[in-house]
Amino acid sequence: MITNNNVINVVAWKDELVDAKGFAVNDPYVEMFWLPILGPTATWLLRRLAAGLEHSENGYSVDMEDLARGIGVAYSTGRHNPFARALHRCVMFGVAQQLAILPERTFAVRTHIPVLPQRHLSRLPEALRVAHHDWMHAVAQ
Known about the structure:
- The protein has helices at 16-21, 28-38, 40-55, 64-70, 82-92, 118-121, 126-140; strands spanning 7-12, 23-24, 60-63, 96-100, 106-109, 112-113.
- With 141 residues, it is an alpha+beta fold.
- The chain has one domain (7-140).
- Strands 3-1-5-4 form a four-stranded mixed beta sheet.
């Protein structure tokens, strides 16, 4: 793995239960129900980070500026740029976790994410809550 101020290291977040019962990050479920919670930039970031793990199962390093430009957002040093906010949202909502800061920034990223927790489900518009109920009922059968 590379150590550089603009580089993060990415590894898979292994969680047997979520990996077995959850939804792949590129599943329509994520776009329909997690996107309103994560936000579009964080959702794209999650998908891009997880896609890299498809090609490098043991993890990889990526330049944050290149990654930010690749998902269409600006990057600058500091915590208040769109890329940093999206990465923070991924951590805040439990789809990524920061494992290390020094000597290198390393993030574990889910390749599957869980069913939307009730506390987040309650924030969705009524139509999406109904759609979620119907979706989960169809999956259960």
